Amino acid sequence: MTVPIAGKGSSPVPGRLHLGDDAIDLPAVAATAGSDGLAISSLLATTGKVTVDPGFMNTAACTSDITFIDGAEGVLRYRGYPIEQLAANSTFLEVAYLLIHGELPSHHRLDEFVERVDRHMYLPEDFREILSMQPRASHPMAMLGAAIQTMACFYPESMDPLNPAAVDLATVLLMAKMPTMISYIHRRAAGYALLYPVRGEGYVRNFARMTFARPGEAADLPDALVEALDTLLILHADHEQNCSTSTVRLVGSAQANLYSSISAGVAALSGPLHGGANEAVLEMLARIRDSGRDVPTFMARVKDKQDGAKLMGFGHRVYKNYDPRAAIVKKSADRVLEALGVTDELLDIAREVEEIALADAYFIERKLYPNVDFYTGIIYRAMGFPSSMFTPLFAFGRLPGWIAQWREMMSDPTTRIGRPRQVYVGHPKRDFISWEDR
Ligand code: SDX
Description:
By secondary structure, the protein is mostly helical. About 50% of the residues lie in helices and about 5% in strands. It contains 18 helices and seven strands. The protein has a three-stranded antiparallel beta sheet. A two-stranded antiparallel sheet has the order 1-2. Strands 3-4 form a two-stranded antiparallel sheet. The structure holds s-citryldethia Coenzyme A (SDX).
């Protein structure tokens, strides 16, 4: 029995599809902001036809209360709150609570959540052993995906996707152990001993210390580093139905547990067109530097599409205006680098590339602007992270959004197992050709 998809906006206009002499009504799904939807679930049964939309450019897979993006205006809101206000006034754990539970927490609720996460940051010795057996040169996103799946082995009591208590426990365990896992992945690659979380040290400061502290030395962690990292995590926390979030929802729609679904999201995020772009931006800027800062030649290669060259960190499926997250990161870049006592030629090159691109017809016509990945890598590098850790940091920030979207999908009565259709364009029926006749 299919549950009708209900919108929440006011009186949208339904659609009417004319196919030859037939006409079918497409019920409207009202939005509270942005585009209304047209429900097409009855199309196949009533017309024998399916819709075709590669990359789901125009297809909504669900209704959602969590995040709103206006690509034309460069607007991003989590549960209705503008990203600019959250970045300026909130903390990553408070934003995580907001995304997952739908409202800003009371002081008591936030203290409870922070304390519960703080209590669970520790990873068992056997878990550390498993991470320590991975080859040092392992790709960090491969290690992160495996580590998240491994949580199901260590915490089977939190696996049942239909048990609210288990889902709540898995939510807290993931939020708590993600920073510890990521710090271990970095230290494993660097050949450093794995450190332990310290109760009460603070979520992001704990992560930074476990990542950067030299054994036997007090960690030198300027407040500017911890604050900038907290803000970067907020900026990455959710982004509606992007590739990795849609992956998390699709895997979860089969009633796979939260760990398996998040691990699949990590795999999707690792792609250079998605979360892998922040690392690719640094490589691109370094190539421009090593070419003698010959930006015009590089831009010509991009516009001629030579070898599929792209301006990494530019363009977006939804934003056809400046990504509001990129604007916040760009604004803070100078302040953070100065506070960390770092200068970086790549930041100057990035600004030069942006200035040229925003004045160039190729990019203007295609509405290509800097996205969240264009400047973040420069700040991560200034903090001391190697570029191989940039995408795990993206995954760290996106974790509460993935969890919130998975939980919304699991509790949505219209959720069905995700199983897209196709238009078959292969051979018509034909008979097997025997060995002798071939
Ligand atoms: C993220 O979806 C999300 O919300 C993602 C994200 C999130 O928070 O989850 O915001 C995070 O993934 C940001 C995007 C990071 N990726 C990059 O920076 C990689 C570079 N960007 C492109 O690969 C591209 O812009 C995409 C993948 C981001 C979007 O691609 P689309 O929407 O499929 O657009 P398209 O490839 O159809 O491009 C349309 C035109 C093409 O030119 P024409 O064929 O019309 O001549 O624009 C061109 C493209 O060649 N184009 C670019 C370009 N991006 C698009 N040309 C040069 N450089 C680019 N970066």
